Amino acid sequence: MQDGTDMTMTETYQMEGANLKVVANANSSFGEWAETYLFDKQ
């Protein structure tokens, strides 16, 4: 990052039935966020 700090990102992939679930987390000196994605099999 431009301010010289570190960013840590983690992604976890899981199967929930026939669907793919992705849980993403990140944190840095700017703050933190978490998102969850669920991909439906079609």
Observed structural traits:
mainly beta, 3 strands, single chain, rod-shaped, three-stranded antiparallel sheet, about 40 residues
Description:
This protein is mostly beta strands and 42 residues long. It has one domain. 0% of the residues lie in helices and 67% in strands. The chain is built from no helices and 3 strands. It has strands at residues 8-16, 19-28, 31-39. Strands 1-2-3 form a 3-stranded antiparallel β-sheet, with no helix packed on it. Strand 1 and strand 2 (19-28) form a beta hairpin.
Oligomer: single chain
Regions with pLDDT < 50 over 5+ consecutive residues?
A: none
What is the end-to-end distance? 38 Å
Number of helices: 0
Main structural class: mainly beta
Largest sheet strand order: 1-2-3
The succession of helices and strands, N to C, reads EEE
Radius of gyration: 14 Å
Domain count:
1
The main β sheet shows up as: 3 strands, antiparallel
Helix content: under 10%
Shape call: rod-shaped
Number of extended strands: 3
Give a topology summary.
Elements: E1 8-16, E2 19-28, E3 31-39
Antiparallel strand pairs: 1-2, 2-3
Give me a quick take on this structure:
The protein has 42 residues and is mainly beta. It contains no helices and 3 strands.
